[in-house]
Amino acid sequence: MILHELIDYQTLRMIWWLLVGVILIAFAVTDGFDLGVGMLLPFVGKTDTERRIAINTIGPVWEGNQVWLILGGGAVFAAWPPLYAVSFSGFYLAMFAILFALILRPVAFKYRSKHESARWRGNWDIALFIGGFVPSLIFGVAVGNVLQGVPFRFDPADMRIFYEGTFFGLLNPYALLCGLLSVAMFIMHGAAWLVLKSSGPVAVRARRFGSIAALLVIVLFALGGVFLALGVHGYTITSEVVTGGPSNPLLKTASHEGSWLANYSSHSWMLIAPISGFLGAIATFVAIRARLEIGTLLFSKLSIFGIIATVGVSMFPFILPSSLDPKSSLTVWDSSSSHMTLFIMLVVSAIFLPIIFAYTAWVYKVLWGKVDEKSVTDKSGHAY
To answer: Which of 119, 160, 201, 282 could bond to 155 as cystine, CB 3.0-4.6 Å?
Structure first.
């Protein structure tokens, strides 16, 4: 038996669907609080010292957290090439806006403290806010558009991809609702991080804004579900489902007359995802008001896990539906790399992902503790 045939094609596709989900959730629960702190910076810090406290809670870890985004892009490129091709070309301007905002962050971190001018530092604080707000909003807008279907199609003759949407077409009401949910979710997470890692006025203000954000997450997540049930049609495969066949989306037929909630009636265990999203946000609100610092962060992570997992299990097996030609929609079963490629990547991931998790855990253990005024005003030069 050839080595890669130890795991059949269907199982490998499922494993990589799960792994990409794990990577996206890992990005959201790590870099998510970085984005949230950036958005909260003008509101939790009234003085330069207070803003420096907030910045230094994420200063040592934000670069490592952002690696999950790069890893996610690489995983999509290698495991789901058509998904990478459609999303990165169709959402080109949106991706460029995210990239621009993410470039602002390291520049702001490095240059903010190079000059004592209040105006200079204030401008870089605005850059940090933009670097948190723009990616948070656009990530959510992208998910909202994916749930509605993306305007692309494949040419049957040569499998060329044609994207027929516009940038401003992405800014539709449901997508903006998902964008606002994403912003509220990361603000909640950023506030949970500040409550754990800071003290004094910064933590007090973070607790207040985190409470509001948690309530908004509950409301916006519920609204998103209502609109998904009543106004947003789902997709369904209308032909025979071939789970181990070739990666050619046009070999199936699909319809845009389904419901994204159908999976929950067929597989009731999937309800764990939306329930986690709601209960996590509710528990975050309770914990942050009760001053349970570690609990607040853990419950916030649970909510993020539930919200992102809800999108995945609701759409399964679709990963990028087409509003122009439902037949062109990409699913778990017809848009992956080859059997051999998925197997080799799985072996590599089995070696390196545990190392990444272990190293990340060690870093957070070493950096455990609160950031206070004394640590940022120390003349040793280690603080931002």
So the answer is: 160
Taking the alpha carbons of 88, 89, 94, 99 in that order, is the dihedral positive or negative? positive
The structure tokens listed for 55 are 């910045």
Q: In this structure, which amino acid lies at residue 314?
A: S
- Contact yes or no for 258/236 (Cβ under 8 A): yes
Measured in degrees and rounded to the nearest 5, phi and psi for residue 37 equal -65, -40
Q: Residue 1 pLDDT > 60, yes or no?
A: no
H/E run at residue 257: strand 254-258
Q: H helices within 45-91, ranges in order?
A: 48-58, 62-79, 81-90
CA distances to 84, 250, 316, 323 from 152, in Å? 13, 13, 19, 7
Compute, in degrees rounded to 10, the torsion defined by CA atoms 171, 249, 156, 326.
-40
Confidence of residue 3 (pLDDT cuts 50, 70, 90): low
Q: What are phi and psi of 162, to 5 degrees?
A: -120, 120
**Which tens digit of pLDDT belongs to each residue from 175-214?**
999 999 999 999 999 999 999 999 889 999 999 999 999 9
pTM, entire model:
0.93
For 334, phi then psi, to 5°, come to -135, 20
Length of the chain equals: 384
- Cis, bond preceding 151 (omega within 30 deg of 0): no
Go through 330-341 and write b for each residue having 16 or more CB atoms within 10 A of its CB, e for each that does not. Answer: bbbbbbbbebeb
Dist. CA 55–CA 112, nearest whole Å = 10
CA distance 78 to 101: 25
**pLDDT, tens digit, for every residue of 238-281?**
999 889 888 999 999 999 988 899 999 889 999 999 999 999 99
* Chain segment 102-127, per-residue pLDDT in tens: 999 889 988 888 888 889 989 999 99
Residue 384: pLDDT over 90: no
Enclosing H/E stretch for 200: none
Mean of pLDDT over the chain: 91
Q: What CA–CA distance (Å, rounded) separates 279 from 30?
A: 20
Rounded mean pLDDT of 282-299?
Answer: 95
